[in-house]
Amino acid sequence: MKTQNLKQLFKASALALFISSSMPTFAAPTDQVIAVVGDRAILKSDLQQGMAEAAHQLQAQKKEVPPAQILQRQILNQLIIQNAQLEQVKRYNLKIDEKTLNDAVLKVANQSGVTTLEAFQQKLDAMAPGTYEGLRNRISDDLLIQRLRQQQVMSRIKISDQDVENFLKSPEGQAAVGSQVHVIHVRISGDASTNQLENAAKQIKTELNSHNDVKALEQKFSNDKVKVEGADMGFRPLSAIPADLAARVSSLNTGQTTDLIKAQDGIHVLKLIERKGNEQKALVTQYETRHILIKPSEIVTPENAKQSIESIYNRLKAGDDFATLAATYSNDPGSARDGGSLGWVSPGMMVPEFDKVMQNTPAGEISQPFETQFGWHILKVQDIRKQDMTNEYQKRMARQILGERQFDSELDGWLRELRANTYVEIKDKNLDDKSYQPQ
């Protein structure tokens, strides 16, 4: 078995790896430390559990399970790099808020047919006490590692303005940002094994090379365990297609299909029927905005901040000049020196609470005081306009495509550096494998 297959296995969902009535849970009374990673310990039971989960997943996918000695070294390497990343999570004090974690756990619950966290907890803890808490902790670790990777790897990706310009001038760039595409989209999902879904997807991809009849594909390949959903999406701008799918379609020639696109909701295959120039402009509503911010601090309580903003609001309603009050009282130094001016603001540039108030305030009007994570605000919308943001959109999309290309290679390099710079002591020398392969 290739190491790459095992890497992909470790990227499987927490549900697939954790919830199985046939999966043993190892909690040996005479557990021992087999490796130390920074301040964290890897126990023998951790390794046994990881090997059992890996073997279970491989068997479910009808793939060959490697010999025990090879498997345990590969699993140990994955546990080491996982713990090295969690050491970095601790170092940077990264946190996952309760709502984000609950949403992620609920998504896993829904995959198993459960609609509430309470019912999910009861179901898991009926298998073994503490199972729900264990799964929740693993999902939390996964989310924290994802956040760490985004922060660390994205900082390594360097895309110059010249890189963007060169891409936009290339045939692929012209296709990505300057075209409308007529696409057929097929999604393959269901309760079948991964191998069965992949086989069905490969056959569908082959058939799409010879015809475009999505209904025929649905009827031919759908069954009790495989669900095939196809749609002729007609012509639409690439900007109206999710960026990850648009990047795949943009490189296709007419009549070609994408490789299999694996996602949480199934396997996707797209076929490009036709391409034409995109005459649609990216017109964005912008708001010329001023604001006044009063922030709580060590000497200004939240209640005092609220009272201050209400006092300023009353003065504004009485006719005092907005710019003068902003320059005098606002705690946002960047805008206060310019009378509270934020210039022309596009939706999405500010926090959601600010965005919502701004978009609901008529031109020339002043909002009532409102609170965000930064403190208490009053804003004034001086004018509203429609702005052609086509060039800006094209550059953003180009940067996203170029960034996605670099991410995997930069992630691989970062993981290697992390592994090399992390203190690791393997207690069992039979498991000491120097040929590290990053996850």
TrEMBL record:
UniProt-annotated location(s): Periplasm
Reactions catalysed: [protein]-peptidylproline (omega=180) = [protein]-peptidylproline (omega=0)
Signal peptide range in chain numbering: 1-27
EC number: 5.2.1.8
Any one of the GO CC terms: outer membrane-bounded periplasmic space
PROSITE patterns: PPIC_PPIASE_1, PPIC_PPIASE_2
GO molecular function: peptide binding; peptidyl-prolyl cis-trans isomerase activity; unfolded protein binding
Chief location category: periplasm
UniProt domain comment: The PPIase activity resides only in the second parvulin domain. The N-terminal region and the C-terminal tail are necessary and sufficient for the chaperone activity of SurA. The PPIase activity is dispensable for SurA to function as a chaperone. The N-terminal region and the C-terminal tail are also required for porin recognition.
UniProt KW keywords: Chaperone, Isomerase, Periplasm, Repeat, Rotamase, Signal
Enzyme class: isomerase
Identification of the protein by name: Chaperone SurA
Residue intervals of the PpiC domain: 178-274, 284-383
Pfam family, one: SurA_N
Organism this protein belongs to: Acinetobacter defluvii
Keyword Ion transport: no
Known function: Chaperone involved in the correct folding and assembly of outer membrane proteins. Recognizes specific patterns of aromatic residues and the orientation of their side chains, which are found more frequently in integral outer membrane proteins. May act in both early periplasmic and late outer membrane-associated steps of protein maturation.
GO biological process: Gram-negative-bacterium-type cell outer membrane assembly; protein folding; protein stabilization
